[in-house]
C-alpha cells in the first residue's frame, strides 16, 4: 500500500459545477471545508478543464487540496492535487502512473468485498458509503453504520464517509469510526454556504474530540 499526496481533511466537499463556483468555494473553505472535489458527469473535457482551473486556484490560495472526479488526465492538465475514481472508472494503476507518487488518488467503495480488494491498491484514501441512500448516487442502497466500522477498522489509509453526513449524524458516524466526512447537498443546497460549513465543521470537531465509550 502506497500512501501519498497531501492529507485529506475532516470536511471534504464534493461539488458539481455551478455559476458561482469561485464565490461558493471561498465561502465553504472559510467555513471549514478542507478538501474539495469537483464532480461533473456531463460536461465535455474542455469545459471541465476550464472550471477545474477556477476551483484549483481557489483551493491553492487557501492551501486546500483539490481533487477532480473521474479524469486523471484532466487532473494532470489543470494541476489538481489528485483524482477520485469509482469502481467503474479509470484504474488506480492508471491514475498513479499519470499523477505520480505525490498525487492524491481516492477510490470509492460500497461493500466489504470492494474495500478488501482496495487494500492492495496504491490509493491515498478510500471512500465508504453511501451510509444512507442519496440522490447523488441514484439506485444505490445505503450501507448503514456497520460498513463505516468495517471500512475504518480495516483500511490502512484514511476513509472518507459518504451519504447522510449532517450536523445531526456526525456523532453516530464518529462513534462508528468515521474521521473524514464527505458532503454534497448539505453545502451545495445551503442558503448560506459559509454558515452551513461552519456549523458542520463545528459538529465534526466536537464529535471527534468527545471521549469515545
Specify the structural class: alpha/beta
Catalogue the unreliable spans.
1-5
Choose one word for the global shape: globular
CATH architecture of the domain at 11-105 and 163-208: Alpha-Beta Barrel
Order of strands across the biggest sheet?
1-2-3-4-5-6-7-8
Topology-level CATH name of the domain at 11-105 and 163-208: TIM Barrel
CATH H-tier superfamily of the domain at 11-105 and 163-208: Aldolase class I
> How many DSSP H or I helices?
9
Report the portion of residues in β strands: 15-25%
Write down how many β-strands occur, each being a DSSP E stretch of 2 or more residues: 8
The ordered string of helix (H) and strand (E) elements is EHEHEHEHEHEHEHEHH
Percentage of residues in helical conformation = 40-55%
Major pleated sheet: 8 strands, parallel, barrel
| Rounded mean pLDDT score | 93
CATH class of the domain at 11-105 and 163-208: Alpha Beta
